[in-house]
Amino acid sequence: MGISYDWTREILTCEPKYYKWTQWIFLLLYKRGLAYRKPAYVNWCPNCQTVLANEQVSDGRCWRCSSVVVKRKLTQWFFKITAYAERLLDDLKYLEGKWPDEVINLQRNWIGKSEGVRIVFKLPEFDKQLPVFTTRADTVFGVTFIAIAPEHEILEGLPLSEEVHQYIERSLRISEIERTSREREKTGVFTGMYAVHPFTGERIPIYVCDYVLATYGTGIVMGVPAHDQRDFEFAKKYGLPIKVVIKPVDGELSEPLDKAYEEYGVMVQSGKFTGLTSEEGISAVADELKAMGLGGREVQFHLRDWLVSRQRYWGAPIPMIHCPRCGVVPVPEEELPVRLPEVVDYAPKGKSPLESVPEFINTKCPRCGGDAKRDPDTMDTFVDSSWYQLRYTDPHNDNEIFDPNVAKRWLPIDQYIGGIEHATGHLIYFRFITKVLYDAGISPVSEPALRLFTQGMILNEDGKVMSSSKGTAVPVRPLVQRVGADVARVGVLFLGPPEKEGIWSERVVEGARRFLDRVYRIVTENLDIVTKNVPANDSILLRKINYTIKKVTEDIEHFHYNTAIAALMELVNEFYKSKKDETLGYGLYTLVKLIAPFAPYLAEELWHRIGGEGSVFHTSWPQYDPAKVYLPEIEIPVQVDGKLRARLQVPFDVTEDDIRKRALEHPKIRQHIMGKQVKRIIVVPKKLINIVTK
RNA sequence: GCCGAAGUGGCGGAACUGGUAGACGCGCCUGAUUCAAAAUCAGGUUCCCCGUGAGGGGAGUGGGGGUUCGACUCCCCCCUUCGGCACCA
Questions:
Q1: What's the pLDDT tens digit per position in A105-141?
Q2: For residue A497, which nucleotide's C1' is closest to its Cα?
Q3: A50, A348 contact by CB (below 8 A)
Q4: Which positions of chain B lie under 7 Å from any protein Cβ?
Q5: Residues paired with residue A122 on neighbouring β-strands, in sequence order
Q6: What is the largest CA-CA distance in chain A?
Q7: pLDDT value at A653 more than 80
Q8: In this structure, what DSSP letter does residue A479 have?
C-alpha cells in the first residue's frame, strides 16, 4: 500500500531487549507500591485459559475469543491504576479539543467518579464493622436491610449456616452475564445476623445478595427499599419493610408505593435531619457520621485495578520470585531480563505454561539464596504497549530504558492514531503508565499524546467487520496486484471521512483508477510545457491552482482526505478544459506534488517524467499566493424574501452600495418586488443579498 | 435505564464560525469516436408540476414546533439507527 515506516526504529515487544524494560517498569511500580498481589475473584476465559482485565471483558465475553467469562478466585498481580483515577480524569482537560470528544467521554464514564458518603454499620456480637458506600446518605433512616456481596471476604470470618454457604457457592458459579442480567430476579439469603443502625440503634437484618458487586465501593450496600428501585424489588420479594424517608418537595407519596421514589426531595421521619432537603441532608449526615467516627464523605470510582497476570506463554515474565522463607522477592534489576524459556508446549492448560518448565521456574532466592520459584505468569501484553512511545525515541539503547534528552526532544507524541476500540483499554493504560514514569522522573511528559485521531474501520461490502480468519476480509495483496497501490489508496481515502467507518466497494476502484489515469495522461501529454515557475500574469486558472494548494494543504492537516482528493479532481477537470500555456504548465508541476501523499508511486514516476531530480518526497510542498486564491469575479445570489431569484456576476471587491443597486436593477428581481414595498435589504459581503418586502 | 454519535439524491458523500443544499465520485441517460464493443471524450442527472422549447413555478437535508431577513447548521419535543456503560448503590 506504499506505507512509509522508519524501520531503523523498529521494536519488537517480545524480544528480551525490549521486555527487559517492561520488567524494569514492573519493578518500578512494585517499588512505588503500585504493583501488588491479591487473591480475588477474577475474570477467567475458559477458552483462552487465562485471566483477563476488566477492560478486556465486554458484555461478559472475552475480547479475543468471545467466550463467556467466568469468575475464579486466584491470587494475581494488579497495577494500582485506581490510585491515578483522579488524575486520569482531571488531566482529560489537557486533551479536550485535541482528542475526539467521544474518547474523552468514554474515558470519563469508564473512570466513573462518584461522590458519596461512607456509613459504618456495627456488628457488635462479632466485633466487626460493615461499611457501606452511598450517594444517598439522605435516605439513611430508610434502611431496612444490609446486603453483602456473596464473594465478600468479611463473610469468611462470620458464622454462616449451611444454607448461606450453599447460596454463596451457587452465586459464584453462574456467569457474570447471567448474574448481572436485568431481567433476572434479585435473590439473597438472610444470614441470621443483625447490624446496628448508626443513628437509630435499630437492629438491621443482614442478607447476602447476588445483586451486590464485591468490586465496587465496599462491597456492602445499605438497603433502602423506598428510595432505590433495586432494593424495592428485593424487599418486596423477601417481605422486608419499606420505609419512606424522602417526600417530594411539593407533595406527598401515596403509600404503599408501587415503585421506589428515587428523586431528591425533603427528609421525613429522619430524626433531627427531618425537614432538610436531600442536598442538605447528604452533607449534614456526612458531617455527623464523621463526628461520630462512623464514616464521612468518600469518592468512589468505577475504574478497577488493572489485573496484569496472564497464564500465557507470550508476554514478559513477571520479574518476581516466591521464596518459602522471604516471601515475594523482586528480581534484582541487574538480573533482568528474566528470559522466556524455549517452551515446546504453549497450549493453555489452565495454568501458566512456564510452570511446567523446571529450569525456568526453579531458582534461588535473591535475598537468602535458598531454593525458590519464579512467578509463573507473564504480563498482559497491553503493558508492553503502554510505554512503547518512550522506547521509540531511543530504540536501541542497551544501557537505559531510553536517553532522557532524546525523549525530551520527541515527546509528547504530536499525532497519535488508533481505533476507537482502544478508548477504555490501551489509551487508559498508556496514560497511566506514562504518568507513573513521569512521577518517577523518567518520562519527560505526563500525557503521552497531545493529539489523537481515531480512524474508523473499513467494512466489507456486506457492512461487516473484515476478518481474515472468517474469510470476510478484502485481502490487500490481490487488490494491490490487480489495481495498484495508488488506486487502492485513493479509493479507500475517497470513500468518506476517515474517522467514520466506510463500506468498501469495488465501485470506488473505478473512480480512483479513472482519476489517476487522467492525471497521468494530462501530465505526460504536456511534458513540454511543464514548469516550476509561477506564471507572472494572473488568470482564473492560476487562482484555481492556488485555491487547490490551500484546500489540499488544510484538508490534509484535518484528515479530510476525501475532500482533498475531490479538490484535486476538480483541478484536473479544469486542466482538461484549459489552453496549453505556462499557467497549465505550472499547474501540472504543482499537481504532481499535491498528488504525492495520495498516489506516491504515480507521483514519483511523473516527477521523473517532468524532469525532477531525486524523489518528489524530498522536494518542498507547494506554496500559494494568498492574494491570488479567490476568483476576481464572483457570483452573488439574490434572494427576495429568502427565496433565490437571481444571480449576479460581480467583481470580488464590489461595494455594498453597488451590489444593492445592481440587485434592484436586475429584471427578474424587479419582477418579483413589483407591487411590494421593500422593507429591508440584507447584504452579506461576498455571500448573498436578501431583499425583504412587506 | 444512563452517556454519546448520527439521520442529506438511486449509492458513497460535500456544504467554513447560520448565507446559492447536493461539491467530488459511483451509477444511470444522451451524444461523439468505432464495422461493433471496450476504453476515452463532451453534455445531462434531487423530486413534483406547467411548457414542444428556451424557460417558469413549487417542495425538499428523519418527523413536529420555535428563533431569524435567512436554518442541514441554533433551541425544544418526538422517531429511527449505531456505539459505550449497565444491579456502580
A1: 999 999 999 999 999 999 998 999 999 999 999 999 9
A2: B13
A3: yes
A4: 3-5, 12-16, 19-21, 23-27, 39-43, 56-59, 69-71, 83-89
A5: A129, A196
A6: 108
A7: no
A8: H
Nearest nt to the A636 alpha carbon by C1' = B20
Q: Are strands A633-640 and A688-693 parallel, antiparallel or unpaired?
A: parallel
Looking at the domain covering A113-301, what would its CATH class be? Answer: alpha beta
Is A242 strand, coil or helix? coil
- Say what the pLDDT of residue A308 is: 95
Can you give the distance from the CA of residue A573 to the C1' of nucleotide B36 in angstroms?
A: 30
What digits encode the pLDDT tens for the residues A8-58? 999 999 999 999 999 999 999 999 999 999 988 888 888 888 898 888 888
The number of angstroms, rounded, from the C-alpha of A612 to the middle of its chain's C-alpha atoms is: 44
Distance A506 CA to B58 C1' (A): 39
In this structure, which topology does domain A633-693 adopt according to CATH?
Ubiquitin-like (UB roll) (3.10.20)
The neighbouring-strand residues paired with A129 are: A122
Tell the CATH topology of A7-104+307-439: Rossmann fold (3.40.50)
Of the pLDDT bands very low, low, confident and very high (cuts 50, 70, 90), residue A441 is very high
Residues A158/A141, Cβ–Cβ less than 8 Å: no
Q: What are phi and psi for residue A71, nearest 5 degrees?
A: -95, 140
Q: Inter-axis angle of helices A506-524 and A600-609, to 10 degrees?
A: 10
Structural domain spans, chain A: 7-104+307-439, 113-301, 476-628, 633-693
CA of A214 to C1' of B88 (A): 10
pLDDT, mean of residues A443-464: 89
Give the pLDDT confidence score for residue A179 in this predicted structure. Answer: 66
The CA–CA distances, whole Å, from A357 to A70, A344, A354 equal 27, 10, 5
- Cell numbers at residue A630, please? 479567490
The CA–C1' separation of A577 and B43, in angstroms, is: 14
| Assigned CATH class of A476-628 | mainly alpha
